[in-house]
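PROTEIN DESIGN WORKSHEET
SECTION A - STRUCTURE
LENGTH: 281
TOKENS:
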């Protein structure tokens, strides 16, 4: 069950407990609630997002990258990409940031029980999928084969590197990482993440795929999954648009007949397949 912290249009203050630099332009906030604000515990589903407000600058949607088991704390991972995220990158432990949420649809973890699960991420798209693979590992006996595929621009841009290394050492999950461009010392795969899908082991007759990353990467990943025999309704993708209100009122994130903030961001591919690839939509 998902519970909103407060009125969806009211911002609740949270304090930065820790700021962790992931790469040169990407960082993670670990937040804790300010005493006396908000009501009840913060509950969310993997794939949902919050609206994060930097006081005096503005508000942006950021996916939740942590798990439920964090003693009431929240994690958000983002890349510096504009005015608001640039201001976020200058904040430090002890600073206060505003939150409202959680919002949106979530990854179909319950629907994946008893099936092979293929998690495909590109770049910053690993952050919204982090709660998924952590949940899958935590409930390992409920799923068949679990495969995580991740593509990054360079080795230096790999997110959660130490975490991925630990997962790779875990025999209960298969992890494949590739980079677009190799640098000195890299001994792993080189090439786009879709190239990994050609040979990754899974049973397309009993599998679910969850894909998040740049839109073009998701399109090609879906095509490769379909070529392998996976049905459209068993492929889920997370879309991104310019969200302002998060409740479907402002229209900023309208995507054809859908609103990414309330109908998404996670969609079964067959629901929006006719929209992907449409220019200027």
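SECTION B - SEQUENCE
RESIDUE ASSIGNMENT:
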């Amino acid at each position: 069950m998902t519970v909103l912290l407060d009125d969806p249009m009211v911002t609740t203050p949270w304090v930065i407990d820790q700021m962790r630099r992931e790469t040169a332009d990407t960082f993670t906030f670990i937040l804790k609630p300010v005493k006396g604000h908000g009501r009840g515990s913060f509950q969310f589903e993997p794939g949902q997002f919050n609206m994060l407000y930097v006081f005096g600058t503005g508000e942006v949607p950021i996916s939740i990258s942590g798990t439920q088991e964090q003693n009431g704390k929240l994690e958000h991972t983002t890349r510096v990409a504009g005015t608001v995220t640039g201001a976020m990158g200058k904040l430090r432990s002890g600073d206060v940031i505003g939150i409202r949420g959680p919002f949106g649809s979530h990854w179909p973890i319950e629907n994946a029980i008893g099936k092979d699960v293929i998690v495909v991420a590109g770049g910053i798209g690993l952050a919204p999928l982090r709660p998924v693979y952590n949940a899958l590992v935590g409930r390992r006996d409920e799923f068949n084969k679990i495969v995580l595929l991740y593509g990054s621009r360079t080795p230096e841009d790999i997110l959660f590197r130490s975490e991925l290394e630990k997962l790779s050492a875990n025999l209960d999950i298969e992890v494949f990482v590739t980079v677009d461009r190799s640098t000195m010392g890299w001994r792993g795969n080189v090439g786009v993440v879709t190239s990994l899908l050609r040979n990754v082991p899974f049973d397309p007759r009993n599998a679910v795929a969850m894909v998040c990353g740049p839109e073009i990467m998701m399109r090609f990943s879906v095509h490769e999954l379909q070529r392998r025999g996976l049905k459209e309704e068993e492929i889920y993708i997370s879309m991104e648009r310019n969200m302002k209100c998060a409740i479907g009122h402002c229209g900023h994130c309208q995507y054809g007949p859908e609103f990414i903030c309330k109908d998404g961001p996670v969609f079964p591919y067959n629901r929006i397949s006719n929209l992907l690839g449409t220019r200027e939509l």
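SECTION C - NOTES
The first helix runs from residue 83 to 88.
Helices lie at 83-88, 126-138, 161-168, 215-227, 260-263, 269-272.
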